[in-house]
Design a protein that fits this description.
With 112 residues, this protein is an alpha+beta fold. The chain is built from 4 helices and 5 strands, in the order βααββββαα. It is 38% helix and 18% strand. β4 and β5 form a beta hairpin. This is DUF5753 domain-containing protein.
Amino acid sequence: MILDGLTLERHGCPPDIMRAQFTHLLELPADGTSTVRVVQPNAGVHPGLHGAFDVLEFPGLPGRISLVHTALGIDAAQADLWDAWQQIDTLALSHTDSRTFLTKCLAALDEP
């Protein structure tokens, strides 16, 4: 998954909730089954700012399915969002740098 760094820095949630969230993200295994990466807050405008989405591929089936997450639920996207995903993937920090970013966000919760 790729998360927006600005959202992580300016979350507006109680510290105890965000502490649990950051801790959970940092505890996810880095074995390829779950990779967490972050787009830096200074990355500027990117397709991920439109909202959450998934691009799904299934072995043995041609093509992809793109899903968008809205306030009303999950819907099929009107277009293939693969290019949008690739743009965001290019902007995202490496797994190691993303862990450093998340660790700093976690530490910032304890700052006055």
